[in-house]
């Protein structure tokens, strides 16, 4: 940690790189400024706060590919059936690079936040006007929120929650050598930061005009009381404190600030900072053009390059069970959003005839993954998706989320750089967590009816069949599945259908953390390793009107004895290798153990 963070002790401004902050760099030479003389006014503290926000951009914090592979969401790239990825195989160690990088970048964020806090404390007595005092409080609340958030993420990811607490800026090498604190102390620490931010941040930083247009675009992305409430609720849910979790989630829901957006606007450039967004990481192709996608000073993302098959690396593709779950996502046949109007030539008259059919797959499915037989949504300028995607090597689907399928012909058109914001928290997640809190993880029957209402809000947004054996008064025309859910059955639906299909790839390691907190990771891998899938060919007509075939790309459950090489089984090695003590959390990284003699021993 010390080696990674040492630089920012001397100059936080060296790493400020967010859109709109260049003006902060034109007045002085930042290399001549030390932390002792930099923090002179609110403008300096605002500059430092920008650097804190910017730290969230670092891809090593989210670690999208390793965290998805650690869970049950994905296969590690192309080349089935053999996998070598250490996270998919559950063989990672304290020397694994993603774990080391995540630790380093989280603590870099903590140190940046601490510098802003210290700077604000140093100028508090200069706040002579009400306007300055109010801005000082806002900046302090933001800084403490992010210090809490980075500690919360570290607690969620490392060493059973026993991680290092930093509430100060080290002034000497010796002060870097801190020991880990018990999990309970870490929770108490970050919750105090969250509570301060929750008390002092406004309900919204921008608001909308009722038509989805922000009232103050300059404040888009700044954290608010709603942001903090959602994260606080999550922290309580993770500890199975359902009462407090429900309290904070309901406050966010009842605030009137957020509402569900179109399902297709939560993972593309089109719907950035929409009314469903609670916390998202901002990226942009139009700023810092001189910086590459790999630069910590840049404003571009690598996620599309990692995900896409069209011009990208496809470093992860959906796992077999997830593809099947999306294929079986039950669309409502009575919802007009699921009707496709098309024209066909009458073979007898030669005239065009207008016809109607149901969508091939649900809206949620189409906007989440690309399937070879999905005709209803363009994919890099073509429909069906099979025209643009190869679907070779037993690859039966690709993630559509966080790829530029809607604005490019290929990721190569954008030089493999993406400006899509990454969604860390949105209202649908809050609805589903609130539903889980209402039924207390499947143990409280009294909350079932209300929980179903919130799950159905998420499902109705995607024109899906709703849950329950009675009509939902909010959606009286919708089709219901006529199932009588008790608390446990509803919890199973949340675990194996609603949360993974709605939130795949979103958030901070949501699926991995969900599986762990439910205590089902080992069981999940074991169950999935016992399911066999096989594949069929797909015949289609290309853009030139020629008949073509994609071989072995339409997945189905079952075994083909005639062609054993096209049968697929996921997670066999994960089921054998997974160990709660070793793989529930990342271990403390070896770089920290090597550099910090006190990491496990109090001074």
UniProtKB/TrEMBL annotation:
Residues 88-204 form the SusD-like N-terminal domain. Residues 307-599 form the RagB/SusD domain. InterPro entries: SusD-like_N, SusD_RagB_dom, TPR-like_helical_dom_sf. The lineage of its organism: Bacteria, Pseudomonadati, Bacteroidota, Cytophagia, Cytophagales. Its main location: membrane. Keywords: Cell outer membrane, Membrane, Plasmid, Signal. It is found in: Cell outer membrane. It comes from Persicobacter psychrovividus. The keyword Membrane applies. This is RagB/SusD family nutrient uptake outer membrane protein. SUPFAM superfamilies: TPR-like. Belongs to the SusD family. Pfam families: SusD-like_3, SusD_RagB.
